[in-house]
Specification:
mainly alpha, 75% helix
């Protein structure tokens, strides 16, 4: 039994065995039509302008200009956001902003009062009653939906064909 036919005993021998088998396989040649299509695609890609190709295909001057413009845009964004912060502070200190804030505070207080009222009411009602009421409401909704669908189907079936449209 030669070394190519001997069964491997562990993972390392199995890896070497498979490697030997794969290296012994003949190389396969790509079809001529595939090679022609690849050459055609490479020619089309090479004919594209530099700004369509990847950044590494750009000329050095264009890369430098792009870096400078990008840094300028980052600086402009930083300055703009800083200015917007100042504008936001000025608006918060103005009287319309204070009126809006007090109105929002009033609605927040109203919401807290309603929540407290709801907590007081639900604290005294047993949870079984709440779940039972929700279940009954769900059953009534399903019954209403089913009856509505049945009535609609009955109405459509009794209407003559020419009157439906």
């Amino acid at each position: 039994m030669n070394s190519m036919q001997k069964p491997p005993r562990d993972e390392r021998e199995l890896e070497q065995y498979i490697g030997k088998l794969l290296r012994a396989q003949p190389l396969r040649q790509a079809p001529a039509s595939l090679e022609a299509r690849i050459q055609q695609q490479l020619a089309i890609q090479a004919a594209q302008p530099w700004w369509v190709q990847g950044f590494s295909a750009w000329p050095w001057l264009a890369r430098i200009v792009f870096a400078v413009v990008s840094a300028g845009l980052v600086l402009l964004t930083y300055l703009t956001s800083d200015r917007l912060g100042w504008v936001s502070q000025a608006l918060q200190q103005s009287s319309p902003a204070n009126a809006a804030r007090s109105t929002a505070q009033m609605f927040t207080n109203l919401g807290h009062a309603l929540q407290t009222l709801g907590d007081m009411l639900t604290r005294n009602i047993p949870s079984a009653w709440l779940y039972g009421g929700a279940g009954v409401a769900l059953l009534l909704y399903a019954a209403l939906f089913g009856l509505g669908a049945a009535a609609f189907r009955t109405l459509i079936d009794t209407t003559p064909e020419h009157a439906r449209y």
